[in-house]
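ok so I'm stuck.
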Amino acid sequence: MTISARTAATCGIAGPAAFVGGWLVNGLRTDGYDPLRDAISQLARVGAPTRLSMSACFVVFGVLVPLWAPTVARELATPALRPAVTVAGLATVAVAALPLTREPGGTQDLLHAVTAGTGYVAMALTPLLAAGGLRRLGRPRAAGLSAAVGVVSAVSLVLTVVTDTSGLFQRLGLGVVDVWHVVVAGWVLTRRS
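replied:
not stuck anymore, here's the structure
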């Protein structure tokens, strides 16, 4: 199945918007939830009042971003982007399918951590891979910005496992790549207008 570049770019905007919007809205409406300390997955934990809506946002991101993957890979002349972006999306669907359990620990929570970690690697890798393609396309400034986004993402996501403010670093690490997708998709849309 192939979709138009315009439709794919729209997916590249809508998927990240649903994900970020999901954790913003659900976090604000959850008593006791601390976005600086608590992981996004806490909003989709078994028994959480926001479980269904946050899980739906995970799935929207996880379905739409892989639809965007072939177009971003082609537009940025970086074939390796297609599997990286696809894995980021599919890992997010797996995170929704394997929510954190009511009682922490156990096999499902371990599988959740593995799928989330896989998604983290794919997300951070995306702008790093794109930097080479942007350089080849004669866009050195965009390449530098893309590489910087990838470094910020990678460092932030590593910090989620070693700091008390893991929620902050998770949002920073994923959020900068979400913004990267929206900016690149917007650029594709303006080129196709």
